[in-house]
């Protein structure tokens, strides 16, 4: 098999070699418990502090506002459960129909108990309606939780405006920012969210580490009780993972600041080339603002599994929707919420790029695709999404 071309970076990213080196160094030389008083503990504590500063710098917040977690699933749970625990009289949550399963499954669980959940619908391009958001907030709304970028389509929600609406109603605002952190500038001073989830393995750090930004002054009750993380998240810190996340955050900040073509350019070269060669391709969410690096498409009526299998045999990794639901034959809840039929959703494929991908890889993919997708089916679909 030829060298693989990895285009499933929204599922997970390869480790950056500098992240790996920092983690290896930590594994070898820094075994202390950051809570220990002796010098070995102090050395570990120093690395924990350094990583917190690096993550805070990427978000534009104070280090004390960063709580390390086991990943975004935990961060999302901590945000939602914590917001509900602040005021037991508030039992209503607003979110959207296209959130990640780590949010939607928790909300489903809560809805089966005593919590009322309002899921905002999206239009055909995956966008929410801000007037509708404003109209569903109530006196007993504990939280508005909206993802910043969709992991399947890359469609961006207007988080600054949504956070402002929540704030003007006195409601806590959380965003699952997993798919934007490290890809576009994120500054919690400019975008006034109260809580923000991120995940290490989406920005070239390890799996099993993430963070929750908690705005200063918001006293969010913990999910796990203990003295670590200033009593906000108990449990001895995953120092190796955290050190890697810190380095990954610093590298991401540098990559975002760099001039020149980034992953958005790769996505654009890919989509332009694809539409030239295969004009019947439909790009999901193409008319909405999208995060750079995500391309979710439907090739006429060809089943996604056939395309993905052909690509895999040719050495290319892509996916159908979210890795967290991949493997199943269920149509994507995101595409269905965008008004697509189950058949249309099952024909959609996601390519997601990282800073390690190259134009040469995109060109190779463009050469491969027509042969894998097969002959065009006349009159099957529209041109470009929108
Ligand atoms: N939210 C989004 C938008 C994601 O893409 C993911 C990862 N698929 C998660 C949450 C969960 O992150 P983690 O794997 O760190 O639990």
Tell me what you see in this structure.
The protein has helices at residues 17-29, 39-59, 72-86, 101-111, 130-136, 159-168, 239-257, 263-277, 304-313, 333-337, 342-346, 359-373; strands at 5-6, 66-69, 92-96, 116-120, 141-147, 172-176, 195-199, 210-214, 281-283, 294-299, 316-317, 348-352. By secondary structure, the protein is an alpha/beta fold. 38% of the residues lie in helices and 14% in strands. The structure holds 4'-deoxy-4'-aminopyridoxal-5'-phosphate (PMP). 4'-deoxy-4'-aminopyridoxal-5'-phosphate is lined by residues 71-73, 100, 102, 147, 151, 176, 178-179, 199, 210, 323-324.
**What is the CA-based Rg, rounded?**
21 Å
The termini sit apart by: 38 Å
The largest β sheet comes out as: 7 strands, mixed
| Secondary structural class | alpha/beta
- CATH class of the largest domain equals Alpha Beta
CATH architecture of the largest domain: 3-Layer(aba) Sandwich
How many extended strands? Answer: 12
Tally of domains = 2
What CATH calls the topology of the largest domain is Aspartate Aminotransferase, domain 2
Mean pLDDT: 93
Bound molecules: 4'-deoxy-4'-aminopyridoxal-5'-phosphate
In DSSP terms, counting alpha (H) and pi (I) runs of 4 or more, how many helices? 12
What is the helix content?
Answer: 25-40%
CATH homologous superfamily identity of the largest domain:
Type I PLP-dependent aspartate aminotransferase-like (Major domain)
Tell me the β content: 5-15%
Which stretches of 5+ consecutive residues score pLDDT under 50? Answer: 377-386
Q: Give the strand line-up of the largest sheet.
A: 2-8-7-6-5-3-4
The best one-word shape is globular
SSE sequence, one letter per element: EHHEHEHEHEHEEEHHEEHEHHEH
Family: Belongs to the class-V pyridoxal-phosphate-dependent aminotransferase family. NifS/IscS subfamily.
GO molecular function: cysteine desulfurase activity; iron-sulfur cluster binding; metal ion binding; transaminase activity
Domain Aminotransferase class V: 5-365
Keywords: Aminotransferase, Iron, Iron-sulfur, Metal-binding, Pyridoxal phosphate, Transferase
